[in-house]
Design brief:
Strand content: 15-25%
Radius of gyration: 20 Å
CATH class of the largest domain: Alpha Beta
Strand order of the largest sheet: 5-2-1-6-7-8
Number of domains: 2
Number of strands: 14
Structural class: alpha/beta
CATH superfamily of the largest domain: Dihydrodipicolinate Reductase, domain 2
CATH topology of the largest domain: Dihydrodipicolinate Reductase, domain 2
Number of helices: 8
Helix content: 25-40%
Shape: globular
């Protein structure tokens, strides 16, 4: 089997470390792994396949000989270094927001729009974590019943804000003044309806991402209204989703269809207190769905609850799955 050289940009962050783990777990055919990070982290080491691997400083020539470069170091780093990686022969899979809405860059969730990887020009974008888990569920429902509109409220864990978010929650729970603050208010025992910056529309950038990215990934102009909320959960994002269909659909129809959908696990037995929860999803790669019920205010509509690990399926695993699709076409 052909072996590939894979660079991970932002390798010491939460998503970068998860990318390294997922590459190992899924036995991606790697000949060389090249962890890249800022000068601050360069010189440290990470464990890959039981052996320490030196973290190298990210510089212009970091991508010589690289086949795939997985980026998770923020939009500014991606804008500067992704084109350089492409010029040196790498295919970039970027987890930032830098290229998601670029019409020349495919925005891919393998369970939803796998064919889009074929039209890349060197860069493929990984969607927002909250968008990924939602569209994995929306796609089979749209194919069957045609979605008219979606209203979603998210309950997003502190890992979505990186190490700084985790540290703030841990410090507050321990009664310590946070060393660095990721959020504008205390997060312990709180719910903050504010993720990313507010825009003139009154929506936050995180909400706008979900609304715009959904249409691009699904290849359909589906109206989405989003409210994103940060909650004091360590890992795993949850979403309350209301869907209005054009065609008749019962809760049983939706439940039955989702049981056979790629990447979806249905956990829906409320009488036995069975429904998806973030702690159970953490460390896994599926998208979990439950609380499936008819919306009595609509001629054809449902409410449901979606949960997934935002670091894995919402970022690292999705990126590795894209790379796997690319080598299957190699």
């Amino acid at each position: 089997m052909k072996k590939y050289t894979v660079a991970v940009v932002g390798a010491t962050g939460l998503v970068g470390r998860a990318m390294m783990s997922v590459l190992e777990e899924r036995r991606f055919p790697i000949g060389e792994i090249r962890p890249l990070a800022s000068e601050r982290s360069a010189g440290s080491s990470l464990i890959f396949r039981g052996e320490p691997v030196l973290v190298q400083r990210l510089v212009e020539r970091s991508f010589a000989g690289v086949d795939f470069a997985l980026f998770s170091a923020g939009a500014s780093v991606s804008r500067e270094f992704a084109p350089r990686a492409v010029n040196q022969g790498a295919i970039v899979i970027d987890n930032s927001s830098a290229f998601r809405m670029d019409p020349e860059v495919p925005l891919v969730v393998p369970e939803v729009n796998p064919a889009d990887v074929r039209r890349h020009c060197g860069i493929i974008a990984n969607p927002n974590c909250s968008t990924i888990q939602m569209v994995v569920v929306l796609k089979p429902l749209h194919d069957a019943f045609r979605i008219r509109r979606v209203v979603v409220s998210t309950y997003q864990s502190v890992t979505g804000a990186g190490k700084k978010g985790v540290n703030q929650l841990e410090d507050e729970l321990a009664g310590r003044e946070p060393r660095l603050k990721a959020f504008p208010h205390p997060i312990a025992l709180n719910a903050i309806p504010h993720i990313d910056v507010f825009e003139e529309s009154g929506y936050t950038k995180e909400e706008t991402k979900m609304m715009r990215e959904t249409c691009k990934i699904m290849g359909a102009e589906i109206p989405v209204s989003a409210t994103t909320v940060r909650v004091p959960v360590r890992g795993g994002h949850s979403e309350s989703v209301n869907i209005e269909f054009e065609r008749p659909a019962t809760a049983d129809d939706v439940r039955s269809l989702l049981r056979t959908a790629a990447g979806v696990v249905v956990q829906d037995d409320p009488a036995a207190s069975v429904y998806p929860m973030a702690p159970a999803a953490e460390g896994t790669d599926a998208v979990y769905v439950g609380r499936i019920r008819r919306d009595p205010t609509l001629p054809s509509g449902v409410n449901l609850w979606i949960v997934a690990d935002n670091i894995r399926k919402g970022a690292a695993t999705n990126a590795v799955q894209i790379a796997e699709m690319l080598i299957s076409h190699d």
